[in-house]
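Project standup — Tuesday

K.O.: blocked on the structure for the chain from last sprint. Re-posting the sequence here as requested.
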Amino acid sequence: MHERIDFMGLSIDRISMNEVLKRIELFVESEKPHRIVFLNALKIVLANSDKELQEIINASDLVLADGMSIVFSLRLLEGIQTERVPGVDLMQQAIELVEKNGYRLYFLGSTPEVVDRIVNIYRTKFPKLKIAGWHHGYFSADEETGILREIRKNRTDILFVAFGSPQKEKWIEKNYRDLHVPVCICVGGSFDVLSGERKRAPRWIQKIGLEWFFRLIQEPRRLWWRYFKGGIIFVWLLTKEVARRYLV
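H.V.: unblocked you, prediction finished:
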């Protein structure tokens, strides 16, 4: 049984990848809607100034540690070890689970080219994969109605939503009850990585917590200010939490 921890005002589940996959199976079998979100340093910074996002995270069925900053901080503040469960890795393993169990999968997000590439890649890799549908993330309000209808009509079991933060969390929060999808998973930039649009850091870089730096090198203009500002705020929030616990 996994453990839910309060971490800097946000819930996080101390759970392994294998346990997450088992929970996904239980969620699908229940036929009731569930949400899976990921927590990293940037998400903590965003939630610190966005009460709606904070409430969404805390109410989600699974909140997973996606980022070594979370793993290191949990060790520092709580003295516990937890497994990192990256969105990219969970997405890959969940797709294998979908094919094995005959579930129906929907891809939503990223650009038209990237989402088409993702579908073609996994259709080739898993010929028995049941794809309920797919759509890029640049849709209008009028198009959204049709997308929601298609997701429901095609009896989607697992929905991957690849928007930015906090857009994906808020979109799922707004729609997941009416979609009747047992598992909605926020996967962020996973489509870009798994389609080959963006390279992923080597495993050793991931393990030492510098995957963010690898991304920054690839997209410096887009990411430098977000990472710089987010990093400073996260360190400040972490420092305040350490002081609150040990110095007050």
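K.O.: great, moving the ticket to review. The longest helix spans residues 220-246. Residues 3-204 form one domain.
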